[in-house]
Amino acid sequence: MLFQTPNDDTLYQALLDRDPSFDGRVYVGVSSTGIFCRLTCPARKPKRQNCSFYPEVASAIAAGFRPCKRCKPLAPEANGDITIQTLTKALEENPAHRWSEGDVARMGFDPSTVRRAFKRQFGITFLEMARLSRLRDGFTTLSGGGKVIEAQLDAGYSSPSAFRTAFAKLLGLAPGKLAKDPMLKADWIDTPLGAMIAVSDNTALHLLEFADRKALPAELKKLTKAVKGNIGIGRSAPTKQVEEELKRFFAGTSDQFNTPLVLHGSDFTKNVWDALRTIPAGHTKSYSDLAKEIGRPTATRAVARANGANQIAILIPCHRVIGADGSLTGYGGGLWRKQKLIELEQQYLAR
Q1: Known catalytic residue: 37?
Q2: Whole domain around residue 89: which residue ranges?
Q3: Is residue 298 part of a domain?
Q4: Boundary-marking domain end, from 74, 92, 114
Q5: Is 342 left (phi over 0), alpha (psi -120 to 50) or beta?
Q6: pLDDT tens digits, one per residue of 229-238
């Protein structure tokens, strides 16, 4: 199941302990102040009789509580973790640095704790995130017309083969094989849930995936084959548009996406994707419900396969499909991201 909420006494003790295992899963409304908080909120703890607990942001808002300005319950959970805040800020300020566990320890953090925190929130460790960040600088250099050797140095790689290997692992093809004047352009988009790779032509978006998704190289290989190798690095108008729309989405100001899309799939698969786009933010459906909706009630498994084949994350919201029993089923971007997206979209439902 998504989460089995324990009794209120257990939750109050978790509030006193600032237990991180409940963060983003349960919220406390405080009648004496009229606000609601994460259970990890650093504010002074309220009396037991003034506390009521809610499984989601929408429930707390519906009960008349305002969000706390200290723990920011409307923001993604990772924003409330001081360890993650400090290290991601350090990474932003010095992205070219070759980070090590020694650096983490010198900043006063336990490397094993940091590994667990980043793995839990982002699906990758801090050091893996740092390597991806350096690779992004190589993306930027190539996008601006720079040479491969310049991209390698800008990405902080002393070894050409190491840079080619890292690049090929991410994109599915080595930098030397990229087209000079490509039909499709791949570029990097940063989000609160991790880096994403966007691929678009001059008029529409073809792919939007999290950079650490295992299926990304295979998906890019299919696109490369479809355009006979005419793919490269760069930023087109649809990529700029979707980046702005994603910023508004994660900021909680808009759940609308108007970027033109090109869908690569069979007619059945496209029907499933069209049905996904009709699910409003804050709502979920089961695979069987989706199968009935497209007029194929016995095709639940085929619907699930089409859902998993989605190459445009978030805009085609396959994360809004859950198991018939309410469980979080497979998601290419990671179940932790699926949980975060569902939680994030509760604020749209509350409106």
Answers
A1: yes
A2: 78-127
A3: yes
A4: 74
A5: alpha
A6: 788 888 899 9
Q: How far is CA 50 from CA 8, 201, 213, in A?
A: 12, 56, 44
Q: Rounded CA gap, 102 and 106, in Å?
A: 6
Are the C-beta atoms of residues 333 and 210 closer than 8 Å to each other? yes
> 261-272: buried (b, 16+ CB within 10 Å) or exposed (e) per residue?
bbbbeeeebebb
Neighbours of 119 (CB within 10 A): 14
Catalytic residue among 37, 41, 51, 68, which?
37
71 noted as active-site residue: no
CA distance 154 to 139: 9
Share of the chain above pLDDT 90, in %: 33
Question: Average per-residue pLDDT in the chain?
Answer: 83
In the numeric block, which tokens belong to residue 200?
């678009």
pTM (predicted TM-score): 0.64
Instruction: Confirm whether 136 is domain-assigned.
Output: no
Taking the CA atoms of 294, 300, 306 and 309 in sequence, report the sign of the dihedral they define.
positive
Cβ density class 303-335: b for 16+ within 10 Å, e for less:
bbebbebbbbbbbbbbbbbbbeeeebbebbbbe
List the structure tokens of 341: 């997206």
Q: Are 207 and 173 in contact (CB under 8 A)?
A: no
Question: Where is average pLDDT lowest: 79-93, 275-289, 308-322?
Answer: 79-93
Are the C-beta atoms of residues 323 and 290 closer than 8 Å to each other?
no
Catalytic option among 41, 51, 71, 318: 318
